[in-house]
């Protein structure tokens, strides 16, 4: 089933999202399913580094979904029958007063699939889904030294809204935490 991004009802898990502005060849973005857990965990592991992560490398047998990580929060990118990327967007807090915001709390593209616009397609799909679900703003946190991700976010219309200097000590170096946000079109 193809979904139209704007004006459509909240999508169901596993529904495919039609992305007419996307260029990457043979790319499908859809909502995650519980059975994506293993492939997502493997992808997460392959994308892990101190450039983008603040927690140690996950265990090889660790899953992704648990009581705090629901498949409904994830969009996955599939190419050639393989899962090549994901994005996770959630309300920053459980407060009713905060439900008009979505925060991107996970984004990764398999190292072999990078540089083809998949990251941009995931961000745009996450913003479109957030808008469909009533959000007005999307925010995120990115490490100061993660230049590929910062360039991607800026290209997607995010601007810097704050900096927490030397927030993390990663691999022996203090690294800034950059807060970015994007207002969604009405
Ligand atoms: C950040 C990340 C998600 C970007 O994914 P990606 O799929 O490579 O992103 P894109 O392809 O959309 O953009 C990356 C580059 O490819 C280029 N590009 C985009 N579309 C392209 C296309 N069709 N053909 C060739 N190159 C393209 C972009 O210009 C961009 O170049 P830049 O590095 O000069 O900015 C990926 O590097 C990653 O998984 N990093 C590790 C995890 C991480 O950092 N996550 C973010 C945490 S905040």
How are the elements arranged and paired?
Layout: E1 2-3, E2 16-17, E3 27-31, H1 37-47, E4 74-79, E5 82-90, E6 101-109, H2 118-132, E7 137-143, H3 147-155, E8 159-170, E9 173-183
Parallel strand pairs: 1-2, 6-7
Antiparallel strand pairs: 2-3, 3-4, 4-5, 5-6, 7-9, 8-9
The structure holds coenzyme A (COA).
Question: Which descriptors apply to this entry?
Answer:
single chain, 3 helices, binds coenzyme A, 19% helix, nine-stranded mixed sheet, alpha+beta, 186 residues, 9 strands, Aminopeptidase
Structure characterization notes:
The structure is a single chain. With 186 residues, the protein is α+β, with helices and mostly antiparallel strands. It has one domain (2-136): Aminopeptidase, CATH 3.40.630.30. The chain has helices at 37-47, 118-132, 147-155; strands at residues 2-3, 16-17, 27-31, 74-79, 82-90, 101-109, 137-143, 159-170, 173-183. Strands 1-2-3-4-5-6-7-9-8 form a nine-stranded mixed sheet, with helices on both faces. β6, α2 and β7 form a beta-alpha-beta unit. Residues 1-11 have low confidence and may be disordered.
Summarize this entry quickly.
This protein has 186 residues and is an alpha+beta fold. It is 19% helix and 34% strand. Strands 1-2-3-4-5-6-7-9-8 form a nine-stranded mixed sheet, sandwiched between helices.
The whole-angstrom Rg is 16 Å
Strand content: 25-35%
Briefly note the CATH topology name: Aminopeptidase
- Tell me the CATH architecture: 3-Layer(aba) Sandwich
Overall pLDDT: 90
Bound molecules: coenzyme A
Major sheet description: 9 strands, mixed
**Total number of helices:** 3
* Secondary structure: helix percent: 10-25%
Global outline: globular
Strand order of the largest sheet: 1-2-3-4-5-6-7-9-8
CATH class: Alpha Beta
Secondary-structure element pattern, one letter each: EEEHEEEHEHEE
CATH superfamily: Gcn5-related N-acetyltransferase (GNAT)
Number of strands: 9
Instruction: Find the structural class using helix and strand composition.
Output: alpha+beta
- Which parts are unreliable, with pLDDT below 50 for 5 consecutive residues or more? 1-11
Number of domains: 1
